[in-house]
Design goal:
With about 120 residues, the protein is an all-beta fold. It contains no helices and eleven strands. The N and C termini lie far apart (about 40 Å).
Amino acid sequence: QVQLVESGGGLVQAGESLRLSCVASESISSINFMAWYHQAPGKQRELVARITNTGSTNYADSVKGRFTISRDNAKNTVYLQMNSLKPEDTAVYYCAARRYVSTYWGQGTQVTVSS
């Protein structure tokens, strides 16, 4: 079972940046893909960005051009660089890892963007 620990959330003003980190308990090179999701109060959890083990990425339309997902296999870590943050980005951000048919989740980190 893969354990994931997120960090880097916080309270920022609109237009500012944050970088989230997700550290896995084992090598991520064998994981099919890793992703960031977010969940705002009263809403469903939604995909923000995903990166495969070959480095391919895809993003939600709402964050394209502002967020960048990357991975460092040597550190078993995935990052989410979030620039030009907006109040509507406020949510709990979760890291996820997909290996074969199993999906593993972190505990989440809160991101709050004030206007």
